[in-house]
Design a protein that fits this description.
Elements (H helix, E strand, L loop, with lengths): L7 H14 L11 H15 L7 H22 L3 E5 L6 H4 L7 E6 L1 H11 L7 E6 L5 H13 L4 E5 L8 H12 L4 E9 L1 H16 L21 E8 H7 L7 H8 L4 H8 L2 E8 L1
Parallel strand pairs: 1-2, 1-4, 2-3, 4-5
Antiparallel strand pairs: 5-7, 6-7
Helix pairs in contact: 1-2, 1-3
Length: 283
C-alpha cells in the first residue's frame, strides 16, 4: 500500500496519533485520529520500512507542537493560527484553545473535505475555518496571506510535516511570503538536518515518491538558513530530548546517549539538532 498523493501522508501520521490515543498512558488523546487515518493509514505505516518503530517520532512531534502552540497563544495573545498543509490535524477540537481564537486550516480541497466529513458536527474549541489552497501556487498563496494578514493582529503560523517535502527555493518563497505579512509574528515548524534526510530517503523514499512526495529540505546551516528570509530562532526543541522527556524514546536511545558523551561538543550539538521543532520570530 503505497502513497498515491502527498495528502496520504496525513493518514499515515493520523494512524500514529491513533496508536498513542489507544495507550492507557497516552501523552495526548485525539478522539478523531482512528477514523481520520482509516484502514489506509495503518496500511501505509505497515508498508514503510520500520514504519511502526518510527511511531515515537511522530508522536513526540505532535506533543511538542501541542505545547509550543499553546505557549505562544498564551504568551503573545495570538488571535489567529494559520495551519499550512494542515492535513488531518484535529487540534481545534482537542486542545484547550481560547474561544475567541480564529484557527485557519489551509490545504488541498480534497483532504480538507475528507476531514470535515469525518469530524462532522463536532464543535471546535475555537472559531474554525478551512481555506482550500494549493500552497505551491504563488499567486494563490500570496493572496491568502495578504487577506489573512489584514484580518489578524498577532498570528501564529504552523507548518507541521511540510517543509521537508519542499525545495529550498519553495521554502525561501514561503518564508519571505510569511515575513511580508506584518501580522504573522511567529512560526512553528519541524526541521531536519542532512544526516536525517539521508536516512529518511534510504528508508522511506520509495514509499512516498509514488505520491509525488520527496524528502528534500534539510539545510546544513540549520535555523540560520532562515535569517536572510526574515526569521530567527526563538526556541529549539530537540526531538531526542523531547522523546526522553515524554518517555517515548526510540529503541536503543540509551546506547546513543552513552556513546554521545565521548563525542566532541560540536558533534554532540549536531546530533542534538538531528531533528527538532523550532519557534521562529520575525528577524
Amino acid at each position: 500500500m503505497t502513497i498515491s498523493h502527498i495528502s496520504d501522508t496525513a493518514r499515515w501520521v493520523a494512524h500514529y496519533r491513533a496508536m498513542e490515543t489507544a495507550r492507557p498512558d497516552a501523552i495526548f488523546r485525539d478522539p478523531f485520529a482512528a477514523k481520520l487515518a482509516g484502514e489506509r493509514g495503518e496500511q501505509i505505516m505497515n508498508s514503510m520500512r520500520g514504519g511502526k518503530q518510527a511511531a515515537w517520532a511522530m508522536i513526540v512531534r505532535t506533543k511538542a507542537f501541542d505545547e509550543m502552540i499553546l505557549e505562544v497563544i498564551r504568551a503573545h495573545g495570538v488571535d489567529m493560527v494559520v495551519n499550512l498543509a494542515a492535513g488531518l490535524d484535529a487540534r481545534p477540537w482537542r486542545l484547550e484553545l481560547p474561544a475567541t481564537l480564529r484557527w485557519v486550516d489551509v490545504d488541498f480541497p480534497d483532504i480538507l473535505a475528507y476531514k470535515a466529513g469525518i469530524i462532522g458536527d463536532a464543535a471546535p474549541r475555537c472559531r474554525y475555518e478551512q481555506q482550500p489552497t494549493d500552497l505551491t501556487d504563488d499567486a494563490a498563496r500570496t493572496a491568502l496571506f495578504t487577506r489573512l494578514g489584514a484580518e489578524s493582529k498577532r498570528a501564529l503560523v504552523v507548518t507541521e510535516g511540510l517543509i521537508i517535502y519542499l525545495t529550498a527555493e519553495h521554502v525561501a518563497a514561503l518564508a519571505r511570503g510569511l515575513h511580508d505579512t506584518p501580522s504573522f509574528g511567529w512560526w512553528i515548524t519541524d526541521l531536519a538536518n542532512p544526516r536525517l534526510l539521508t536516512y529518511m530517503n534510504r528508508s522511506w523514499q520509495k514509499g512516498v515518491s509514488t505520491g509525488g512526495a520527496k524528502f528534500q529540505f534539510a539545510p546544513a546551516e540549520g535555523t540560520d538558513w532562515f535569517l536572510p528570509h526574515g526569521w530567527r530562532e526563538r526556541e529549539f526543541r530537540s526531538s531526542g530530548e523531547e522523546a526522553r522527556r515524554f518517555d517515548r524514546e526510540m529503541r536503543g536511545a540509551w546506547f546513543w546517549r552513552v556513546v554521545g558523551r565521548l563525542w566532541p561538543k560540536r558533534v554532540q550539538e549536531e546530533f542534538r539538532r538531528l531533528a527538532g521543532y523550532v519557534l521562529f520570530e520575525r528577524a
